Amino acid sequence: MDRNYENVIKSINHLRELHKTFLIKDNYSSEKDFEVYLENTKKLAKLFSQPEVEIYKQLYREKSRQMILADILEYILLSRGLFFLTDGTTKHEKKQLKKKLFIKSILYFVNLLMSYESMTVDDKIRKRFLENLAKSIPELKKESKYEELLNFKGKVGLTQKESDASEDLNKYFDSILPKTAGGLWHELLVFIFLIRYDLGYVVPLLLSQKFISANSVLVPPDFLIITKDKDVYGIEVGIKKEI
Q1: Do 196 and 184 form a contact (C-beta atoms < 8 A)?
Q2: Residues 166, 190 contacting (CB under 8 angstroms)
Q3: CA angle, 180 as apex, 178 and 185 as ends, to 5°?
Q4: Can you name the residues that pair with 199 across neighbouring β-strands?
Q5: How is the chain split into domains, by residue range?
Q6: In angstroms, what is the C-alpha Rg of the chain?
Q7: What pLDDT, in 10s, does the model give residues 2-19?
Q8: In what order do the strands lie in the sheet with 232-235?
Q9: Nearest CA among 70, 60, 61 for reference residue 206
Q10: Under a CB-based contact definition with an 8 Å cutoff, are residues 161 and 168 in contact?
């Protein structure tokens, strides 16, 4: 996965350099163009800083962090990653091979996600991960439960009956992993099940968890299936939303 993560970082750096270049007046031939860009940057920054907006908090924060991390992985695997299935070939045999390789890659990745769950009972790797994470993201050390989890000995992140930790510490542990307790890998396995059995066109809505209209919000299921008969079915992985 290293190369995938590196290329996501390259995309972020690309956009950052584009923005930084346009913030320097000497880079322009036209002073007016600079003033227009600067004015809109200031207005956008002010808008994004309003308590009603603060989009940056939706991109990384302690609260709902496990969902944010899962979104990044789903973007890599089920959004941009899907393009390799259709790029550059019209031959049926080549398409089937790509499909098999895609399914295989998802299964290997699910195995990695399952391995991450070992931190629930393995104090050593959990502590090492938290130390390494704080080196990359120093503000993590300021989070209220960081030190407690760093030095905690015992089982954490399990059900309250099975865990040695408090409810608050269990929740904090969940925040350092992408959709723990199988949340993410259940979704990935359901996705490859649906495409493997050729039930129709599979529309992942994992990155579109809110549909908005002028006056309301609709929470869709995780997947839609458009059958060959043009019927549409919603597939929800997990509980609660279907209620």
Answers
A1: no
A2: no
A3: 80
A4: none
A5: 2-58, 65-175
A6: 22
A7: 899 999 999 999 999 999
A8: 201-204, 223-226, 232-235
A9: 70
A10: no
